[in-house]
Recover the amino acids of this structure.
């Protein structure tokens, strides 16, 4: 680590459970952020400024003005651009030393597996169940840690899954079947800071996984109610009937 890196990351290096080794681990980590909406914007920003060495950003959408209240990494001049290109440009201004790779398309099963395979940690920042299901199955198959978050109306939720561990529940044990309609904030609305808060929390979990420092409570669903201002937790268990994780031989991505 050179002088300017020691200076730049000095507040993290001061942490007794993080130190130089944690920072070096971050610099060598590759984190895949799928979805550059409200969650992915915030999570990718903190991962970049904290010194994660390689980010892979995947999203097929273009920036619209209705995105701006939540997607605070972007600015008005970027409306109409691919979100990943806009995000990469903003991130390069914040931390030019890290590598940012962009995938300007909705990941299909092949491209999804290829992207997940490269990553040390995967963040699901998407907004629909079909994508969440595919990401969950790719991470299960390749035994990659997955940090999944969602936000809608005044509510948010986060859960981390460590798929290299035995008998861990998976995303589909929690949500065996939901229609995209039920998960979409396009119809239901969203208050901007709730999505930001969950994006920050995703970044924290990803930083712990990538640095090897700190505890990641996996298989625990954290639910935030921004209207009431309350958190609650629920421990998940593996569903013996889960079509994704219970019968590995029948699993299809
Ligand atoms: Zn499952």
């Amino acid at each position: 680590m050179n002088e300017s890196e020691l200076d730049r990351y000095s507040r993290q290096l001061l942490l007794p459970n993080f130190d130089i080794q944690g920072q070096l681990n971050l610099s060598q980590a590759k984190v895949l952020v799928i979805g550059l909406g409200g969650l992915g914007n915030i999570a990718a920003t903190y991962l970049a400024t904290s010194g994660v060495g390689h980010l892979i950003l995947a999203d097929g959408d273009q920036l619209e003005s209705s995105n701006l209240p939540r997607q605070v990494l972007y600015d008005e001049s970027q409306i109409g651009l691919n979100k990943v290109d806009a995000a990469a440009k903003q991130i390069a201004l914040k931390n030019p030393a890290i590598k940012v790779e962009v995938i300007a398309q909705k990941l299909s099963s092949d491209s999804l597996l290829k992207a997940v395979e490269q990553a040390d940690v995967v963040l699901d920042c998407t907004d629909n169940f079909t994508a969440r299901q595919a990401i969950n199955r790719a991470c299960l198959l390749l035994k990659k840690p997955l940090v999944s978050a969602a936000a809608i109306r005044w509510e948010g939720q986060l859960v981390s899954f460590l798929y290299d561990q035995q008998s861990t529940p998976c995303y589909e044990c929690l949500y065996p079947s939901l229609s995209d309609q039920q998960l979409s904030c396009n119809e239901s609305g969203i208050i901007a800071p709730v999505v930001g808060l969950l994006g920050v929390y995703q970044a924290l979990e990803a930083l712990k996984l990538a640095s090897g420092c700190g505890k990641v409570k996996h298989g625990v669903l954290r639910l935030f109610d921004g209207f009431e201002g309350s958190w609650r937790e629920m421990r998940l268990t593996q569903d013996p009937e889960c079509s994704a994780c219970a019968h590995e031989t029948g699993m299809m991505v």
About this structure: The longest strand covers residues 146-152. The CA atoms of residues 205 and 216 lie 6 Å apart. Strands lie at 30-34, 54-58, 99-103, 121-124, 146-152, 155-161, 220-225, 230-235. Residues 169-170, 172-173, 239, 242, 244-245 surround zinc ion (CB under 6 Å).
